[in-house]
C-alpha cells in the first residue's frame, strides 16, 4: 500500500513537471517558499479536484514519513542503549560515573541547541529524537 501511494505521488509530480515544462518552463520553488500545494496549484494551474487529490497524497505521504521516522528513531535508541550498556560493562565504577556525567553533559548541550533552534524559528520536530521517553 505504501509503495503504491509513493509511486502515485511520484507519477503525479512527474507529470505535473512535464506539463509545466511544455507550458513554457518550470521555476523551482524558493527554499522555504510557503505551502507546496499552493506552489503546485499556481505553477501548474491545478483545478480544485487536482488540488484536493494532491492534498490527500501529501497528507498520506506525511503520515507515512512520520510513521517511518518514529520506527527508525526507536531502532536508533535501542542501538544506542545497547551500545551504552556494553560500554558500561567494560568500565570500572569510576569510569562509569565519568561516562554517565559525559552523557548528561551531551544531553544538556543537545537540549540547549534544540531550544536555540526553536527560539530562532528553526523548530518543527526534525532532529529532536529523544531516547529517554
Structure description:
The protein has four helices and no strands. The chain folds into two domains: 2-79; 91-133, no CATH class. It is mostly helical. 75% of the residues lie in helices and 0% in strands. Helix 1 crosses helix 3 and helix 2 packs antiparallel against helix 3 (48-90). The protein is elongated, with a radius of gyration of 22 Å.
Give a short synopsis of this structure.
The protein is mainly α. The protein has helices at 2-22, 36-44, 48-90, 93-119.
Topology record:
Layout (H helix, E strand, L loop, with lengths): L1 H21 L13 H9 L3 H43 L2 H27 L14
Helix pairs in contact: 1-3, 2-3
The biggest beta sheet reads: none
For the terminal residues, how far apart are their CA atoms? 30 Å
The outline comes out as: elongated
Radius of gyration (CA) equals 22 Å
| Global mean pLDDT | 82
Which features characterize this protein?
133 residues; mainly alpha; elongated
Amino acid at each position: 500500500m505504501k509503495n503504491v501511494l509513493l509511486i502515485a505521488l511520484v507519477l503525479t509530480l512527474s507529470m505535473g513537471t512535464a506539463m509545466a515544462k511544455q507550458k513554457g518552463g518550470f521555476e523551482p520553488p524558493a527554499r522555504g517558499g510557503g505551502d507546496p500545494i499552493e506552489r503546485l496549484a499556481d505553477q501548474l494551474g491545478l483545478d480544485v479536484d487536482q488540488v484536493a487529490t494532491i492534498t490527500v497524497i501529501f497528507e498520506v505521504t506525511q503520515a507515512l514519513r512520520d510513521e517511518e521516522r518514529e520506527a527508525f528513531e526507536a531502532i536508533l535508541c535501542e542501538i544506542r542503549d545497547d551500545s551504552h550498556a556494553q560500554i558500561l560493562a567494560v568500565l570500572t565504577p569510576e569510569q562509569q560515573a565519568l561516562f554517565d556525567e559525559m552523557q548528561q553533559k551531551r544531553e544538556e548541550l543537545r537540549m540547549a541547541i534544540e531550544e536555540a533552534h526553536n527560539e530562532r524559528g528553526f523548530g518543527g520536530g526534525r532532529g529532536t529524537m529523544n531516547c529517554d521517553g
